[in-house]
Amino acid sequence: MVAKGTRRSLHNGDKNHFKPGKKGLKSDLFKPPGFFKKKGTEIFVGNLPPNITEEEIVLLFKDFGLKAVRKKQTSAFKSFAFLDVASPEVVQLAVQTMNGNVVNGQRIVVSVSEERRSPEFKKNHMEMPDLEPVPNGLPVGNGAGERSSKEDKTDLIPKTGIQTAPPLKKNNLYAIPIEMRSSFLVLMLKDCFKDLGWLITICRISGEAGLLVTDTVPQTPFFWAIHLTEENHQNMHKLFSSLAEVESQLPFLAKQDIQRGTRCMAECILGEEGGAWNRCWVLDKVGNMVVVFFMDFGRSATVPLNSLRRLDKDDFWTIPPLAQPFMLHEDVLPPQLMVRQILEGRVIAQSHVETHILRFITKTN
């Protein structure tokens, strides 16, 4: 079960103390003055065909002034997306126009993002769904899977008399998101920071910890979070404040200057809280859209090509990535995103497949 939240403000002067609070309480840590621009322009698109690409989603919603697209796929059969559009008025227009349309044989669901929670989830939004196995054929990590800690690992002991095979145990396997794999992170770190020390450092974390969630992969154990230490607290304030200060002064990148591996700056949409300008790394360019990875939030998104600002000065790349990958030890995350919530608990071990992904067990009631 997801743990009790805690709250700490950037401006209360008490940087070393976590105060227990209610479940699901959101943190003020991402809110230096002038940093967030509240928008209310996010829509949720559900029941998407599993093989649909972000580029196809962009074409599908091209008339609504798309600013960002984030697709999530929880299995080979389930896919949904979050879209940031031009204005709150356009949100209503998109819902009225697109909800119920058939796309590749599936009737999609389009709604205002914050309205998509089910009554059951509103009643107890920390209740976890059953573990969801990855269907056959979906790659898991580097060819190996994460096993449930409850799996019976004892050998079959020969017994006299009639031998019967033990009942089959259910193995819960989850595909490790590409952005969490070491092969991906090594490329990003070399291009952006010229240093791989960050991967070594995060492997050393253990014991009691408070984690500020920046992104989740719903219905899996995987999530990105900022480990709430005094050093990270100072880095957050320094980095976010400096980015907010220079955002309007930096020039936009020309199309010909954007290619895979370009380090730059773009607006990361964080749901109903609005957007935050963040350091990013270009993954791919398709037409007038570009896929970027926001390293301080641990998420990728498709944004307009003309929305990237130049951020190549080394001064902005001395602070290592703020967010790092974690996974719940036994549970899975709820189907709703849990951005800006704080989890309290313990880092107990490393992932069996990717040692920089830390297993985290939350405190219970």
UniProtKB/TrEMBL annotation:
<dbReference type="InterPro" id="IPR035979">
    <property type="entry name" value="RBD_domain_sf"/>
</dbReference>
<dbReference type="InterPro" id="IPR000504">
    <property type="entry name" value="RRM_dom"/>
</dbReference>
<keyword id="KW-0694">RNA-binding</keyword>
<dbReference type="InterPro" id="IPR050502">
    <property type="entry name" value="Euk_RNA-bind_prot"/>
</dbReference>
<feature type="region of interest" description="Disordered">
    <location>
        <begin position="1"/>
        <end position="26"/>
    </location>
</feature>
<feature type="compositionally biased region" description="Basic residues">
    <location>
        <begin position="1"/>
        <end position="10"/>
    </location>
</feature>
<dbReference type="GO" id="GO:0003729">
    <property type="term" value="F:mRNA binding"/>
</dbReference>
<feature type="domain" description="Tudor">
    <location>
        <begin position="257"/>
        <end position="318"/>
    </location>
</feature>
<dbReference type="InterPro" id="IPR012677">
    <property type="entry name" value="Nucleotide-bd_a/b_plait_sf"/>
</dbReference>
<feature type="domain" description="RRM">
    <location>
        <begin position="41"/>
        <end position="115"/>
    </location>
</feature>
<feature type="region of interest" description="Disordered">
    <location>
        <begin position="126"/>
        <end position="153"/>
    </location>
</feature>
<dbReference type="InterPro" id="IPR002999">
    <property type="entry name" value="Tudor"/>
</dbReference>
<dbReference type="Pfam" id="PF00076">
    <property type="entry name" value="RRM_1"/>
</dbReference>
<protein>
    <submittedName>
        <fullName>Tudor domain-containing protein 10</fullName>
    </submittedName>
</protein>
<dbReference type="Pfam" id="PF00567">
    <property type="entry name" value="TUDOR"/>
</dbReference>
